[in-house]
């Protein structure tokens, strides 16, 4: 009790000790576009004090009144220094100019991260941040640069199979990652069955991934948080960016709506595989009816309503369309799927130390399948819709505290699976179409607290609530002809779940160049992804927690040592973690997603638990002609489902070793080359361990669940990028002097080779049977299917 009282009064003292000081706050903006610049450093020489700007370019610090030398710095921008005499609370605007000269162009040195010093300074652990300009210089797949593929090359993050776009963080599943695009969730982040992501790099400004436990202001998932931000349009000038590749083209346009007050950004991307392949497919009757394409559309509007108010409106629409038809067979198949998203955010400044963001959003994901054979039609579909909002506040009471608090709410509407079937004018009874409704809400508070100059603590608490509500029909399966149905009306409460989610992380500086960090977090997850395969297919079902299926929950403990070398040119880290997960879901043996005709999908699901642990090693070179990183992960991930197997078994996300090497070298101002090497332990799967013949039939004996491993995966990608000269020569009329003028139109060409040494990496394995049982030539063997051989590509990029 005595200790608690002491801590309470110590905390009050920390909040009040600087009340006689003044608040120095402001924003750091890009000189031309006036876009906010995050993670710029604002330092005061006399006080030896430094802060970083947030995602809105804002900063705030409590200091004594007086005369100070203030310096603002950010990689790729000119340093800005000014002397300020502070007598009362003031808000300042700082404008940084990009470094553009012959010795240093925007892309002359690839910086892996613009957040110098954050490796050791931040209290967050397991956070990865990347700038899009860094990603664009890396080797591409078929000419498409991809954010998520780059993330998969970092420690603790992996993909499940060749070409798969789903990503798996520290042994968790793909549904355990919260992916946000400007505050709205994206449920399926892939195109072409997982071979490309839905994020057009021309429309994106930055990405961050929290894998070591998210802070208390976010929840709903138990593995990771990925935040992707769309670009904001330039408020002063118009810009056009784009690229033409082998399978797709893209275009981005941005500029002012009203100069210095509002801007827009529009981006589009579309593949033309269907157009390019049509002449070749027409020569093969079996493939002449095959077609596929995808497209993405991004919009963002930015309004400066006043000196204290800004409004952002974002939208995304993406769609895949696969179809096949055969006139000879009287058959056609169509399978479209896609995401829709819209968000609106109001940013308001109450004072120099109090900010607010109010966000509203809508997101949807649908997949449909239709097939027609002669006069028989069948249509199936599944999807999810979310609508909601959040209000979050940031309060800076003094230099030692940065407090965030707020509430969020989401209304979920699930369509697990619908089936319709017709034959001419006859409609078959496929049961009542289901719509499952749920409310999810939370309140949170978090404090980033500098207890001393060397000890920082980020502590937070989140309380989440979930309600599964009617209308709903509960099917209870019994003996033959004895099924029962319980009907719930609209708004009836069917199930209520809730939980406290404490989050804590800490950083202790050991000197100027090193620190240790540790963290612990508890998370609840109220939605589940039910899948029958180890590959992320768009047909996987999103289902809610119910009175039968409990919410997933998990806790994670992590610790690490972080050190910078040579003035921050090299960043290194070693992290260890342990994660435990409860109430995981799987389909019961023999189930199919479409079995819920006159049934509930949760009647087909079973619960289990899992755990994972590992160590991650990371070395990153931040600046210079040679940049890049080496990452290695040793990990183990296991599951326990008593209804599947009585003993623990490896999860389908289990990979013992994962090694990634990413390098980028600037040969000259005109050429850069990049390399990406990947090595990973093969994926797990369940295969027969033996077989025998009984009554003239082959009987398979299977080993333990996921007891077989595919061959190890490894691949090398290379790329080279040529840049045009940034300047043209111009002769002055007055004196004839020849000067260099920056070109208004710039372009570059990227040459990439995927899988340089043509490694046949496994996509899946299957059992091949040859010969007749009665013959001596009967044989059975395991065969491998691989997807991508060596694939060269070229992309022309332009901007003006």
Could you explain how this protein is built, in words?
This protein has 800 residues and is mainly β. It has 3 domains: 21-99, Immunoglobulin-like; 120-718 and 792-799, TonB-dependent receptor, beta-barrel domain (Maltoporin, Chain A, Beta Barrel), CATH 2.40.170; 719-791, no CATH class. It starts with a helix and ends with a strand.
Essential attributes:
mainly beta, 5-stranded mixed sheet, globular, single chain, 22-stranded antiparallel beta barrel, Maltoporin, Chain A, Immunoglobulin-like, 52 strands, 5 helices, 800 residues
Helix/strand-derived category reads mainly beta
Q: What Rg is obtained from the alpha carbons, in whole angstroms?
A: 28 Å
CATH superfamily of the largest domain: TonB-dependent receptor, beta-barrel domain
Quick one: biggest sheet? 22 strands, antiparallel, barrel
Total number of distinct structural domains: 3
CATH fold naming of the largest domain:
Maltoporin, Chain A
Average pLDDT taken over every residue: 82
Proper CATH architecture of the largest domain = Beta Barrel
- Tally of DSSP β-strands: 52
Short description:
By secondary structure, this protein is mainly beta.
List the helices and strands and how they pair.
Layout: H1 2-16, E1 22-30, E2 41-44, E3 49-52, E4 58-63, E5 66-73, E6 80-86, E7 90-96, H2 118-121, E8 127-131, H3 132-135, H4 147-151, E9 157-159, E10 167-169, E11 177-181, E12 184-185, E13 190-191, E14 196-197, E15 204-210, E16 224-230, E17 239-244, E18 248-258, E19 262-271, H5 273-281, E20 291-306, E21 309-326, E22 331-351, E23 354-373, E24 376-398, E25 401-423, E26 426-427, E27 436-450, E28 455-469, E29 472-476, E30 484-488, E31 493-509, E32 514-525, E33 527-530, E34 541-544, E35 552-565, E36 570-587, E37 605-621, E38 626-640, E39 649-650, E40 657-666, E41 671-680, E42 684-685, E43 688-694, E44 697-702, E45 708-709, E46 713-723, E47 727-731, E48 738-742, E49 746-754, E50 762-770, E51 779-786, E52 791-799
């Amino acid at each position: 009790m005595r200790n608690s009282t002491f801590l309470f009064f110590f905390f009050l003292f920390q909040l009040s000790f600087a009340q006689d000081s003044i608040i120095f706050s402001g924003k750091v903006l890009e000189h031309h576009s006036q876009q906010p610049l995050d993670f710029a450093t604002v330092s005061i020489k006399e006080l030896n004090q430094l802060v970083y700007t947030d995602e809105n370019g804002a900063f705030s610090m409590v200091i004594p009144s007086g005369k100070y030398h203030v310096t603002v710095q950010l990689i790729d921008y000119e340093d800005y220094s000014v002397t300020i005499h502070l007598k009362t609370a003031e808000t300042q605007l700082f404008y940084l100019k990009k470094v553009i000269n012959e010795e240093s162009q925007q892309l002359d040195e690839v910086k892996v991260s613009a957040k110098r010093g954050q490796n050791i300074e931040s209290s967050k652990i397991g956070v990865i941040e990347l700038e899009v300009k860094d990603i664009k210089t890396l080797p591409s797949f078929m000419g498409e640069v991809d954010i998520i593929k780059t993330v998969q090359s970092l420690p603790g993050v992996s993909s499940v199979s060749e070409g798969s776009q789903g990503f798996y963080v520290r042994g968790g599943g793909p549904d355990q990652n919260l992916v946000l695009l400007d505050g709205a969730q994206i449920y399926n982040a892939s195109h072409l069955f997982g071979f490309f992501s839905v994020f057009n790099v021309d429309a994106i400004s930055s990405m961050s991934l929290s894998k070591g436990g998210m802070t208390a202001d976010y929840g709903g998932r138990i593995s990771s948080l990925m935040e992707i931000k769309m670009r904001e349009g330039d408020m002063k000038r118009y810009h056009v960016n784009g690229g033409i590749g082998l399978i797709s083209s893209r275009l981005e346009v941005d500029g002012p709506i009203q100069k210095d007050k509002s801007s827009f950004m529009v981006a589009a991307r579309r593949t033309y595989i269907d157009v390019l392949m049509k002449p070749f497919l027409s020569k093969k009757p079996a493939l002449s009816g095959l077609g596929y394409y995808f497209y993405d559309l991004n919009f963002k509007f930015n309004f400066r309503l006043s000196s204290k108010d800004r409004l952002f409106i974002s939208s995304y629409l993406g769609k895949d369309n696969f179809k096949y038809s055969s006139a000879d067979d009287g058959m056609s198949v169509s399978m479209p799927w896609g995401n829709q998203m819209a968000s609106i955010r109001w940013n308001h400044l109450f004072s120099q130390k109090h900010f607010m963001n109010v966000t509203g959003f809508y997101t949807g994901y649908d997949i449909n399948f239709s097939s027609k054979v002669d006069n028989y039609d069948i249509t199936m579909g599944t999807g999810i819709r979310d609508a909601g909002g959040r209000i979050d506040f940031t309060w800076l009471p003094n230099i030692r505290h940065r407090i965030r608090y707020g509430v969020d709410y989401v209304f979920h509407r699930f369509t697990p699976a619908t089936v319709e079937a017709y034959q001419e004018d006859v409609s078959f009874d496929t049961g009542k179409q289901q719509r499952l409704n749920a409310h999810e809400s939370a309140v949170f508070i978090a404090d980033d607290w500098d207890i001393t100059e060397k000890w920082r603590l980020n502590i937070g608490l989140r309380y989440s609530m979930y309600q599964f509500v009617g209308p709903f029909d509960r099917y209870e399966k019994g003996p033959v002809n004895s099924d029962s149905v319980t009907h719930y009306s609209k708004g009836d409460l069917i199930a209520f779940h809730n939980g406290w989610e404490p989050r804590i992380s800490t950083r202790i500086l050991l000197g100027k160049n090193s620190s240790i960090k540790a963290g612990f977090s508890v998370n609840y997850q109220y939605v589940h992804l039910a899948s029958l395969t180890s590959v992320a297919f768009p047909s996987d079902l999103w289902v809610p927690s119910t009175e039968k299926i409990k919410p997933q929950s998990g806790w994670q403990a992590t610790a690490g040592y972080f050190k910078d070398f040579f003035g921050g040119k090299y960043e290194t880290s070693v992290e260890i973690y342990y994660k435990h997960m409860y109430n995981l879901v799987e389909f019961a043996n023999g189930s199919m997603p479409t079995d819920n005709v006159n049934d509930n999908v949760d009647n087909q699901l079973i619960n289990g638990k899992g755990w994972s642990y590992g160590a991650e090693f990371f070395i990153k070179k931040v600046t210079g002609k040679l940049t890049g990183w080496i990452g290695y992960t040793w990990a183990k991930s296991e599951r326990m489902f008593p209804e599947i197997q009585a003993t623990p078994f490896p999860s389908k996300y289990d990979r013992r070793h994962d090694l990634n090497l990413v390098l980028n070298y600037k040969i000259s101002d005109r050429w850069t080359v990049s390399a990406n090497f990947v090595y990973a332990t093969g994926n797990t799967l369940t295969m027969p361990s033996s077989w025998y013949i009984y009554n003239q039939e082959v009987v398979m004996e299977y080993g333990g669940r996921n007891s077989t491993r595919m061959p190890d995966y490894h691949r090398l990608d290379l790329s080279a990028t040529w840049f045009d000269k940034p300047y043209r020569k111009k002769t002055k009329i007055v004196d004839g002097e020849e000067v260099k003028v920056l070109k208004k139109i710039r372009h570059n060409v990227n040459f990439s080779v995927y899988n340089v040494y043509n490694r046949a990496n496994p996509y899946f394995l299957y059992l091949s049977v040859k010969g007749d049982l009665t013959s001596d030539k009967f044989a059975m063997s395991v065969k491998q299917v691989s997807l991508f051989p060596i694939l060269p590509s070229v992309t022309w990029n332009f901007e003006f």
